[in-house]
Amino acid sequence: MIAGEALNHDGRLVVCGGTGLHLWKEQDQSVTLVSHHEGEVLVFNDTIAAPDGGVYAGTLYWDERGMAKHGKLYHISAAGTIQIVDEAIELANGLGFAPGGETLYFADSASRTIWAYDVDRRDGSLRNKRIFVRVGEEEGIPDGLTVDAEGFVYSAQWYGGQVVRYDPDGHVERRIRLPVSQVSSVAFGGADLCELYITTAADPWPSALRPRGFDPSAPTGGGLFRIRAQAPGVPEYIARLTS
């Protein structure tokens, strides 16, 4: 299972999921970079390339009963060293950098929170953890996210049927409504990076995280949507991992 990916400098993809973090080129050509740390199996749910050539990736541990245990946020350097940069994560999800790469945003879906951190480019450590957005219980939960050139954060809302654009202070600037409930992630593309692509998921995921008043009979999704964004995105960083 692939849960998240980033582009590596040699054209391979950095992919993460239930079996760890891997470098992938094509079918049956992958190299595992890390699958365990300090005796724990790493079940990753998303990753992003960092300004220093490494990646950040978050773990989650959920089963049919809910959260089995807390996950962590990791930094894996270009040299392959791994360090824990945050803990007590309930459901690790979207990651994105503000323009300039000095701030990292990270969505913990189950706590309904998008966190912000200051990034230390020397070693990848994070400091000054703070709440960027706390999503209300009447809305969906924050899933994948991205940041545009103006520093506004686009957050996909699973169960919420929308993408929310927040200004750099965490205030809602606009809501992009979709005809499906399970809105999973967002990314910029196109020649001028002004096309916002929005992914949605078809398989229903019933959980206690559904907001009040959620209609379980509503269409879930499965399609890819595209809109013209107000401001362009910024190019993603490229990982420089080796194997």
General description of the model:
The two termini are 21 Å apart. The protein has strands spanning 2-7, 13-17, 20-26, 29-34, 36-37, 40-41, 44-49, 55-59, 61-63, 66-69, 71-76, 82-89, 92-97, 103-108, 113-119, 126-134, 141-147, 153-158, 162-166, 172-177, 183-189, 195-200, 224-228. By secondary structure, it is mainly β. A hairpin with a 2-residue loop joins strand 9 (61-63) and strand 10 (66-69). The mean pLDDT is 96. The strands form seven sheets. A four-stranded antiparallel beta sheet has the order 1-2-3-4, with no helix packed on it. It has no helices and 23 strands. The protein has a single domain (2-228), classed as Neuraminidase. 0% of the residues lie in helices and 53% in strands.
Strand content: over 45%
What characteristic shape results from the CA principal axes? globular
Based on secondary structure, the structural category is mainly beta
| Count of DSSP H/I helices | 0
> And the CATH topology?
Neuraminidase
| Name of the CATH homologous superfamily | TolB, C-terminal domain
Low-confidence stretches: none
**Strand numbers in spatial order across the main sheet:** 1-2-3-4
Query: What is the CATH level 1 assignment?
Result: Mainly Beta
Helix content: under 10%
**Using DSSP, what is the number of strands?**
23
Largest sheet: number of strands, sense, barrel closure: 4 strands, antiparallel
